[in-house]
Write a structure and sequence with these properties.
Layout lengths: L10 H37 L1 E2 L2 E2 L4 H29 L6 H30 L1 H4 L5 H9 L8 H9 L4
Antiparallel strand pairs: 1-2
The structure holds flavin-adenine dinucleotide.
Length: 163
């Protein structure tokens, strides 16, 4: 009894409140990998030459990098928005914080999955090889779409508080 955290029978709700914070942290971590993958692919594309052309000069490659950069920026703003709401404390209704945290996790983890996939694609056969870190990053960030509630569950939470 002395060691119990919170009121009896309220553990589930306490855990859910914790998730409102930890999902934002998870989103920030996922974006770290997303950004690393973007920078790795960008630098590789600037270096790699095929048939006399730097691969970044192919529009298909440059546009993929543009999508990575753009999606990382958007997800970063979602993470900052949720963090700002948490910092505001009781000034923001709980349901809004929960939805914003779910959006941050969903946006960041799916962006990280996209960004690491795009990095593997940009490196071609080397992307699949263990000589480069991007295949490992792609497998690592898959977890971010699963742990602390899957992407399906994030969509469920968001759908329950549609404006
Ligand atoms: C390596 C690893 C580390 C982990 N670390 C943590 C951690 O630190 N913290 C933590 O909280 N959890 C952690 N987890 C657990 C993780 O949160 C769960 O695996 C996750 O919530 C999914 O639960 P489940 O595996 O039981 O899958 P299930 O609940 O069986 O889900 C299977 C599939 O059904 C879908 N589904 C289930 N219910 C619904 C629903 N109501 N609506 C729509 N779709 C649904 C899911 O989205 C998924 O696609 C970790 C898991 C792994 C593998």
């Amino acid at each position: 009894e002395d060691n119990r955290l919170g009121a009896e029978g309220q553990g589930f709700y306490g855990l859910m409140r914790t998730f409102d914070i930890s999902r934002v942290v998870l989103g920030a971590a996922a974006l770290g990998t997303a950004r690393a993958a973007y920078e790795y692919a960008r630098d590789y594309a600037r270096e790699r030459e095929q048939f006399g052309t730097k691969i970044i000069d192919h529009q298909a490659v440059a546009f993929r990098l543009a999508d990575m950069s753009s999606r990382i920026d958007a997800a970063w703003l979602q993470v900052l928005n949720a963090a700002r709401m948490i910092d505001a404390g009781d000034a923001v209704p709980r349901e809004r914080v929960t939805a914003a945290a779910a959006m941050a996790k969903l946006g960041a983890s799916e962006t990280a999955m996209f960004s690491t996939w795009a990095a593997v694609q940009t490196l071609g056969g080397w992307g699949y090889s263990r000589e480069h870190p991007v295949e490992q990053w792609m497998r690592d960030v898959k977890l971010e779409e699963i742990e602390e509630g899957t992407s399906d569950i994030m969509r469920l939470l968001i759908s329950r508080s549609l404006p």
